[in-house]
Amino acid sequence: MFALKLVQDQLIMVDIKAIRLMINLNSNVVNVFKLLLILYLQNGLLSPVPAVSSAMKEKYLEWPYKTGGYKRARKTFTSLHEHRPFTKTFFMKMIEIEKEQETPKMSNLRDYYERALREFGSSDEDLWMEYIKEKLGSHGNPENCGKLHWRAVKTLEGESVEHFTTKYTLLQTGHM
């Protein structure tokens, strides 16, 4: 019997005999592989090494989308977005998944961008620019770009403010 530690000290018990029984009874290697993959990804989420944990979150978000679709990916994102550490890529992956939908919801995109900005908004001017470009796009509200610009200038720190202002000016003048 193996015990894998999960987020918030929950335990999942994996009985090796049960896995062997599944293989013998069903001969369904795909289901066993899926189970082992899930356990592998969950174990990676708990890694004490932030780089490993973050990378596993990105992969763990991709897998349910590829195997179960958008709703499953959104559910997985919701369960993972509360547990640090994060990477910008984690949030951008969910934004990408939302954009791939036939009719992406701006409210969901806004939620994902806002969550990413809470984590990286003080230092990542490119994230602010991507959000502004999204607002300028077909699904957004261009009238809110001024408010986003103001928030970015107030939130960004150091040289990031200057870089952002330059990029925003280039965007406004059509050079970006």
UniProtKB/TrEMBL annotation:
One Pfam family assigned to this protein is: UTP6_C
Instruction: Please list the residue ranges annotated as the U3 small nucleolar RNA-associated protein 6 homolog C-terminal domain.
Output: 41-156
Annotated GO molecular function terms are: snoRNA binding
Q: Which GO biological-process labels does this protein carry?
A: maturation of SSU-rRNA from tricistronic rRNA transcript (SSU-rRNA, 5.8S rRNA, LSU-rRNA)
May I have one GO cellular component term? Pwp2p-containing subcomplex of 90S preribosome
Source organism's superkingdom? Eukaryota
Instruction: List the SMART domains.
Output: HAT (SM00386)
- What's this protein's family per the entry? Belongs to the UTP6 family.
Put simply, this protein is called: U3 small nucleolar RNA-associated protein 6 homolog C-terminal domain-containing protein
What is the species of this protein? Sinocyclocheilus anshuiensis
